[in-house]
Write a structure and sequence with these properties.
Distance between the termini: 19 Å
CATH topology: Rossmann fold
CATH superfamily: Phosphoglycerate mutase-like
Number of domains: 1
Strand order of the largest sheet: 3-2-4-1-5-6
Mean pLDDT: 95
Amino acid sequence: MTELVLVRHGESTANRDNTYTGWSDVPLTSVGLAQAHHAGQRLRETGLQFGAVHTSVLKRAIVTANVMLAEIDQLWLPEYKTWRLNERHYGALRGQNKEVTREQYGKSQVQQWRRSFYTVPPLLEPSELGHDRRYTKYDATIEPRAESLKMAYDRIMPYWTDMIAPRLLAGENQLVVAHGSTLRALIKYLEQISDTGIDGVEVANGVPICYHLDQHLRVTGKDEF
């Protein structure tokens, strides 16, 4: 049996300010740093040893991962950073206050944008794409104008298949530190949640979720610390 631990980054400035973030690279707050330390301390109590850690290329996840690794005294682990684990791209909503968008577009529409598996938020204009240096080595099409959760799911699953699953099958526990929506996508896959059922799944900041997996990577148990 192997263990897969999923952790959403600690509170970011966008979480604090209740704004849409997506691929915008915002820092942790002091609360978020404290959550990262606490998550590492809780993980240390389990005694789990990992083979590698996987995170996005966004600093709120990277810093959370590094703080946790320090707390469990496993900073030496291989750390894989990938755009495929980035938060879902919220398109033209990014930077906007969520409560303001509820007033502007209605609660039902905002709920669809935030929780539906298939609904795509309003698109960025092509001229608004960042062309960030961290993505220049890839095809320009990897940076979306907006994403549904289904689109984020589709970009994450190749990384699961190529980078995470083989290590789990080899008997190495894996740690994934990422974002609310991308972890929801992985949870949907692991727990075989329906397209409509995923609407109600929430992932809290800084709370480790440990999946116990059998030799076929089927979930046999789940704990939250």
